[in-house]
Specification:
With 144 residues, the protein is an alpha+beta fold. The protein has helices at residues 8-24, 28-44, 56-66, 78-87, 103-112, 134-139; strands at 70-73, 95-98, 121-124, 127-130. The protein has a 4-stranded mixed β-sheet with strand order 2-1-3-4. α1 (8-24) packs antiparallel against α2 (28-44). The protein is elongated, with a radius of gyration of 18 Å.
Length: 144
C-alpha cells in the first residue's frame, strides 16, 4: 500500500517559502526557526512516523494468525500520533491500517463507531476499542 504525503508536503513547502521570505528580508535566525518548526510539523504528519500500513483484509488475516491487535489510523490525527509515540518500538508489532488509503478499513471503523471515522480504533480479538490508552494497547501485544 502506498504511503500518503498529503499533509507532510504542504507543511514542508510552506515552511520553505516562509523561511525564504524571512531570510531575504534580513532575518536569517527567524528563517531557521520557522524552517525547523515546519520541518517538525511535516515529519509528524508524514507516514514515516507510522509503521507501513496494510489493507484491512490483510491486517485481519495477520491478526488472526498471530494474535496482534489491528490499529486503524489516519495521517494528521493527533490521537493516532500520541498512540504511536507512546507505544515506541512496540508499535511495529501491531498491524496498522490507514483508513484514508483503504476504503474497507474506513468502513470497519465506521461500523465500530456508530458511523463515525473515529481513530485510532484498535481491534483486539475481534472487539473494537476507540482511542484506548497506549499502556492498555501495549498490554494486548502478545509476547514474542
Amino acid at each position: 500500500m502506498t504511503r500518503s504525503w498529503n499533509l507532510a508536503i504542504p507543511f514542508g513547502l510552506c515552511g520553505a517559502v516562509l523561511a525564504t521570505g524571512l531570510f531575504l528580508s534580513g532575518s536569517p535566525w527567524d528563517a531557521v526557526v520557522v524552517l525547523l518548526l515546519f520541518a517538525l510539523l511535516a515529519a509528524m504528519n508524514s507516514p514515516l512516523v507510522f509503521p507501513r500500513s496494510v489493507g484491512a483484509l490483510e491486517a485481519r488475516r495477520r491478526s488472526a494468525a498471530d494474535g496482534r491487535p489491528v490499529v486503524y489510523w489516519r495521517p494528521g490525527c493527533t490521537y493516532c500520533l500520541r498512540l504511536r509515540l507512546r507505544l515506541g518500538r512496540d508499535a511495529r508489532r501491531l498491524h496498522w491500517v490507514d483508513i484514508w488509503r483503504d476504503p474497507e478499513g474506513a468502513a470497519a471503523v465506521r461500523a465500530a463507531n456508530d458511523g463515525n471515522e473515529t481513530v485510532p480504533t484498535v481491534v483486539v480479538a475481534g472487539r473494537a476499542h476507540t482511542n484506548p490508552d497506549p499502556a492498555w494497547v501495549r498490554g494486548q501485544i502478545p509476547s514474542a
